[in-house]
Amino acid sequence: MLPSPHRLRLSSDFRAVMRSGVRAGRPCCVVHALAHEPDVERTSGPRFGLVVSKAVGNSVVRHRMSRRLRHICAEVASGEYFDIDFVVRALPPAVDADPERLRAEVIGAAERAAAKARRRLPDTPGTVAAARSGNSPNRD
User: Fold this and answer.
1) SS3 35
2) How far apart are CA 17 and CA 19, in angstroms?
3) I want to staple 33 with a disulfide (CB 3.0 to 4.6 A). Which of 40, 98, 113, 118 is the partner?
C-alpha cells in the first residue's frame, strides 16, 4: 500500500503534473513527472497519482492494475525522489505484462522522467546543476 503522504489526491495536482511536467513512455505505461524546488515542508518524499482508464479493461482489471502499480510506486517512493510528483498512466498492454516487465518499465520510465524533470529546474545556488555550470557560491 502506498502511504498517504505519497499520494496525489487533488485534481489540480494531477493537472499540474500532466500539463507542466515532463513525460517518459514505455509500451506498458507513461510516467509524467514534475520536479519542485526542495523545501522544508515537503520532507515526506515523492507523491504519486495513478491513471487507469477504461481502455485498460473492465473494473476488475483496472483495480488489479491499480494495485500492481501502487506496489511498484511504493518501491520508487523509497528512493531519492523527494522533490518530484509522478503520475503513472497505465496503457492497455500493461494488463498482459508479467509483473517483472511491468515493474522494470514503470521504474525505468520514472527514472527517466525524474531526470528530465530535474533538468527543467532553474539553477539555484547549491544545486548539482549550478555546480556543473559554475554558478555555485561554494566553488573554490
Assistant:
1) strand
2) 6
3) 113
pLDDT digits (tens, 9 = 90+) for 22-36: 999 999 999 999 988
49 dihedral zone (left: phi>0; alpha: psi -120 to 50; beta) = beta
- The model carries a pTM of 0.79
CA atoms within 13 Å, Cβ hemisphere of 57: 15
Grid cell for residue 127? 544545486
> DSSP secondary-structure letter at 123?
P
15 vs 131: CA distance, rounded Å: 32
What string of DSSP letters covers 72-122?
HHHHHHTSS-TTEEEEEEE-GGGGTS-HHHHHHHHHHHHHHHHHHHHHTSP
Closest to 6 in 3D by CA, of 77, 63, 68, 75:
77
Contact (Cβ atoms closer than 8 angstroms) between residue 114 and residue 104: no
